[in-house]
Amino acid sequence: MLVSDVLARVGGKWSILIIGALGPGPRRFNELKREVQGISQRMLTLAVRGLERDGLIARTVTPSIPPRVDYALTDLGRSLLKPVSALGEWAIENRALVERARHAFDVEAKS
Questions:
Q1: Within 13 Å of residue 6, how many CA atoms lie on the same side as its CB?
Q2: What's the number of CA atoms in the CB half-sphere (13 Å) around residue 97?
């Protein structure tokens, strides 16, 4: 596996948001869907499957009616919380600067 493959998984918008949502503890699918605003059910399904495949989250099925499915970070996934949190904090702190830069670029591009 290439480093770019790993970065593609952990650097994806949905992956970062899902990992952040699971930081406080396990969540059910619908809880994740509510916390990760804007994600479709299909995209959430694909994202959690990919994160599970890569060993970042664990899926636990509790036999009941209906079956209960919980998602939680693995040790590997928890090791991503610090960098993901730092990236999120950076985005919050700098979103106004990025917006101004985009606006200036767009104005210049129209000229």
A1: 8
A2: 5
pLDDT digits (tens, 9 = 90+) for 56-109: 999 999 888 888 899 999 999 999 999 988 888 898 899 999 999 999 999 988
| Closest residue by Cα to residue 51 from 62, 66, 36 | 36
**Is pTM beyond 0.90 here?**
no
CA-to-CA distance for 92 and 21, rounded, in angstroms?
Answer: 16
User: What residue has token string 């970042």?
Assistant: 56
Q: Which two tokens stand for residue 91?
A: 């985005």
Place of tokens 């596996």: 1
